[in-house]
Amino acid sequence: MLNVEELMELEEKFRKTIAEKSEEILSKLNRDGKLEEVLELLGLADLLVDDCAYKPYKTGKVFIVGQCEVKMQQLLGLIKGMGFDKNRFEFCLDYDDVKRFNFEKLFWRPENTLVLVGPMPHKTCGTGDYSSAIEAITQRPGSPNVIRCGSNSLKMTKSSIRDALQQALDLGMVVA
After folding, report:
1. Predicted model pTM
2. What angle do CA 135, 140, 145 make, to 5 degrees?
3. Each residue of 107-127: pLDDT tens digit?
């Protein structure tokens, strides 16, 4: 434990370092998915909450995550047919791959516009204290827009993906 003098010296060094490297530090924490956690630890989590709430770009990346019954070529044709650029999409369509998909990379990145979700394991990488990945990305601050594929239950078919993308277009979440 530091004495008062040592603590004051440390505070002075800390202030100087923060002032000089704040942008670098915040960028690294954001990239590593630790920004929210560190701000909470420092009692500054309210800095992320704003009336101008976090809003993803409408022209950003779209993730399709979950066990999918559609072949990749069909998906790419569907995407192209709806006027989207295939380069805006990232796919994780195998149930086992979804277990290792790092959901942490979705948060607080406005270039991540939309996540279409389908059937997936409850326990996955990067979901923190939430009971499932879907709960994390629908409830956690800094999330992109999320649409569940399927009408009554989660199911990723050509029509459920088309319907979800059309819904995103209709709601103004994305532009093609």
Report:
1. 0.68
2. 80
3. 889 999 999 999 988 778 767
